[in-house]
Structures are given as C-alpha cells and as structure tokens.
Design a protein that fits this description.
Helices cover 15% and strands 40% of the residues. By secondary structure, it is mostly beta strands.
C-alpha cells in the first residue's frame, strides 16, 4: 500500500466516524419530524354579527351597495347612501381551530332578499378578511375573527320600495 492509498483510507475512516457520530448525537437528542395534527381536525364557527347594508335610497336606475370586510361602504349607479342611524357591517364569524389549520371560505351564489313592502334584491357574499384561504395562527383556546362583506344589487325605486329586506345565505368554511 502506498502513502497515497493510506491517506484516502484514513480520510474515509474519518468521514465514516463523523457520520456515525452525527447519527448517534441525533438519536440521543430525539430527532422528530413535524407533529401530525390531531385527528379529526375540528373547526368551530360562530356568527357574531349579521351582514347589514345600512340605509340608502335607490334612484331611477338602481345600482349596487357594497359593504367591505373592512367596514367600508360604497355604491354604484344612482343610489344615495344615507346615515339615518342605520348601521352597516360585514358579517362577523369567530373561527376556532388548531394552530396551523388552513381554512378556505366558499360562498353561495347570489341569494334573493325579500322586502317587507314588496320587491326583491339580489345579494352576493363578497371578499373576506383575512383573505381566503388563511392559516389559523392562534391556539385552540382563542378565536380568529373572520369578516365577510357583500354586494347588494338594487333595482329602481319602483321595484325596490322602502322597507326591510331579509334573506339568508350560506358561507362554508373548509378545513384543508
């Protein structure tokens, strides 16, 4: 055996010793992979506040009233937004799930709202805050607040007389 072959053999032994030492230290310190989430994954959702568009007056052509998840309100067309003490707000949900759970929101197609004095309007759930999908970042003992806005499609004043318009819609929270 030449001097060159001996140095390669010595390097291989050192490398093997280093790898075995690394494995031994790793096993002694308790190597672990990411913990699996508890099964079944449970997501609880409670509604806290309803979606409300506030007071407005439709004109001759109608338009839309949009309530954003950030409590903003805007209109299109010839609608006039009014205060008059009527509140507007996104629907608020409290969501509870394990930290790290990914949750997506699926909304229904537009739904019909029926007026107390006749007439109907269409309403479409809109964007959410946090935006979908989102990750639960708080422990199970705490709630994540989710706000969902909506778009109300309003016809002219003759088709949508003043009154209270009510209806229901579904928001589906999907755990991924």
């Amino acid at each position: 055996m030449t001097g060159c072959d001996y140095s390669i053999l010595l390097s291989c032994r050192r490398l093997t010793t280093a790898v075995l030492l690394f494995i031994a230290v790793g096993l002694a310190s308790g190597l672990r992979a990411q913990e699996m989430p508890p099964r079944p994954v449970i997501v609880n959702v409670n509604e806290s506040q309803p979606l409300a568009f506030g007071a407005f007056a439709p004109g001759l052509t109608g338009g839309t009233v949009t309530v954003g998840p950030d409590y903003s309100r805007s209109s299109t067309g010839d609608l006039v937004l009014l205060g008059m003490g009527y509140l507007y707000s996104p629907v608020m949900y409290y969501v509870r799930a394990n930290t790290g759970t990914v949750v997506s929101i699926l909304s229904t197609p537009p739904v019909t709202l029926t007026g107390s004095n006749g007439g109907t309007m269409m309403m479409q759930p809109w964007s959410s805050l946090p935006a979908s999908p989102f990750v639960i970042t708080v422990p199970w003992t705490e709630w994540t607040t989710v706000l969902v806005g909506g778009i109300l499609m309003v016809n002219d004043i003759a088709s949508n007389p003043p009154g209270d318009y009510t209806g229901s819609f579904s928001i589906i929270f999907i755990q991924e």
